[in-house]
């Protein structure tokens, strides 16, 4: 009998990283794959589902205006309880560090359903940075039966927390799998404002910044830094993909709206985002995922945070932590923009996060767990 696996995700970043795994599991004869979305983020999630041609089997549609962490958790728990009681899956798969991730794992635990955690073992070792993601990761790890760690460093974090070695697989990150399908040479954007930018002769900086811990002073400082950078460098254009949350959006448009060579755009779909990154000179972000994606494309990343759960890229030299201090951000950006040697150091470094086969390794590991496969799983090594 086939093993029923339900993948659960609710945000755009989760969907990008789970989409190639959904497709891979769909090719395995011994697995009956189902997709459940919580729609913690509705519009941005739907963009990814459409691009990867994924039609959810279950859609909890929980998003509300001004939603709280407590509200999200409650609605996911209640919605998944009904799905699990009716479907009785053998295992659920959750991804990363969202409130959907933790709530999905907890709902499965309450029904005594096995949990597989994709992108497991990332840690900053500070429970409030990033908030609530760090504790979402740790709590999910405590509930998981299989841990799919993207790197050896992530595996070591889990081992130190007492996870059994036989429950951990080093797989690489599934986002690299996704990028093999999205990035195209000679790409023409659907967004006409992007098509008007001279990527050949301008140094285009792609920006995202919306993390909860940066709300308030952090976003203000980031905007002031960006204004200083574009004013000091006449060959620079900024493309800021502005999160839809009004806590972020209102500040960004007030601070940066109407400034020459600053393009404020709503979040783009997956292929537009990845191809914008590919055409850009560098990336500035407080996102976790972009720290993995940009190095794959040889783009230096300045991380607008004081800590990161992805230290591998810092060690390899593809990523640099700059926090939200205006002086620090501006100095580091100007160095990359005007010092070719420093730029090449970062852009030529090796990406430690994957080789495009993470989804295959995860599917192999699940088959191995259920006795559907005899061969050992070949783990990712970098």
Structure description:
With 382 residues, the protein is of the alpha/beta class. It has helices at residues 12-25, 42-51, 69-87, 99-110, 133-143, 152-160, 174-182, 192-195, 217-232, 246-256, 270-279, 289-296, 311-316, 326-338, 340-347, 358-369, and strands at 3-9, 31-37, 58-59, 91-95, 114-118, 146-149, 168-170, 203-208, 236-241, 262-265, 282-285, 301-303, 319-321. It has a seven-stranded parallel beta sheet with strand order 3-2-1-4-5-6-7, sandwiched between helices. Strands 10-9-8-11-12-13 form a six-stranded parallel beta sheet, sandwiched between helices. Helix 13 links the parallel strand 12 and strand 13 (319-321). The longest helix has 19 residues, at 69-87. The relative contact order is 0.13. The mean pLDDT is 94. Its EC number is 5.1.3.14. It holds the Pfam family Epimerase_2. Keywords: Isomerase. This is UDP-N-acetylglucosamine 2-epimerase (non-hydrolyzing).
